[in-house]
Amino acid sequence: MELSEKNDKLKSYLKELGSTAVAFSGGVDSTFLLKTATGVLGDNLVAITVRSGLFPMRELNETFAFCEKEGIKHVILDVNELEIEGFSENPVNRCYLCKSAILKGIWQKARENGMDKVIEGSNMDDGNDYRPGFQAVLEQGVKSPLKHAGLYKEEIRQLSKTLGLAWDRPSFACLATRLPYGESITAERLNQIETAEDFLLELGLRQLRVRYHNNLARIETDEAGFSILADYQIRERVHKRFVEIGFTYTAVDLLGYRMGSMNDPEMCIEKPQQKNRQFGRMKGKMWMADD
Fold it and tell me: In the prediction, which pLDDT does 51 show?
């Protein structure tokens, strides 16, 4: 199917939905979905964004700016994921626990604002990794229009570019994805990770993750990021700042950034028999992924 046909299919599907709430994270996919839905549904739509310690403040601020610029009604859902039963223990179904709670809150906000549908921005590429959150999407009747239209990430970037959107933004995921499964999630650790990543962004790195391994920070980045870190003075600055943040050691992953690197069973710090049993259940699943 041609890209223009997929885009038309997306618009037709959105028109059929009627009053709709868009789960809006500010990433490329949800921004494109929100922009397209606004063009189809007009005022019969509301954007709902989660505010929590799992998402960097810089991302939240960008959602505010976009909705204000586009004149879109924007609703904020405050969530403390650390209060979700079992979440802070960081099990392999962490994303499912979190997504379930968040979607319940989004549904409530949607109904309070007169919306009877909820949509989110998963695309056709969201199935190549372990994605337990998508189970919650299916269970709670949330629609995924980009998947329905058969759109892949690169196609969404192409269409976003034609709309004048920030099509080349690096992908980001919630900060909990930086910790190995079984490593407890705390507000302090999330703040460490966010502060470290903000610093690297200030240095000019774009696609990056700071993976948490207790007193060691493992930086994943792309080739452009490697070029920046090749400068010894830059590395000295990174080391000094990361020590201030709370990391004794800082390493750069030689394989660079790769989606879902923390989903490797070897990264799970739970008991081996528990780890093997849980990861055995993952095989063949097509769920919404950690990044």
Answer: 96
Q: Which of 180, 242, 183, 181 is nearest to 211 (CA)?
A: 180
User: Among 213, 290, 221, 291, which residue's Cα sits nearest to residue 252?
Assistant: 221
**Which structure tokens are listed for 185?**
């999630």
Per-residue model confidence as pLDDT tens digits over 74-112: 999 999 999 999 999 999 999 999 999 999 999 999 999
What local confidence, expressed as pLDDT, does residue 142 receive? Answer: 96
Q: How far apart are CA 109 and CA 46, in angstroms?
A: 10
pLDDT band at 243 (very low <50, low <70, confident <90, very high): very high
Structure tokens at 96: 């499912």
Q: By three-state DSSP, how is residue 118 classified?
A: strand
Q: What is the DSSP letter of 200?
A: H
Residues 6+ apart with CB under 8 A from 232: none
Residues 250 and 118 grouped into a single domain: no
Distances in Å between the Cα of 274 and the Cα atoms of 31, 50, 92, 288 are: 38, 32, 10, 22
Closest CA to 70 of 162, 165, 170: 165
In a domain, 287, yes or no: no
pTM: 0.86
Question: Domain containing 253: what range?
Answer: 175-282
Task: Output the pLDDT for position 171.
Answer: 81
Structure tokens at 132: 């337990």
168 is a domain residue: no
Let me know whether 85 and 180 are in one domain. Answer: no
Same domain, 234 and 118: no
Angle between the N-to-C axes of helices 187-202 and 232-245, in degrees from 0 to 180, rounded to the nearest 10: 160
- Total number of domains constituting the chain: 2
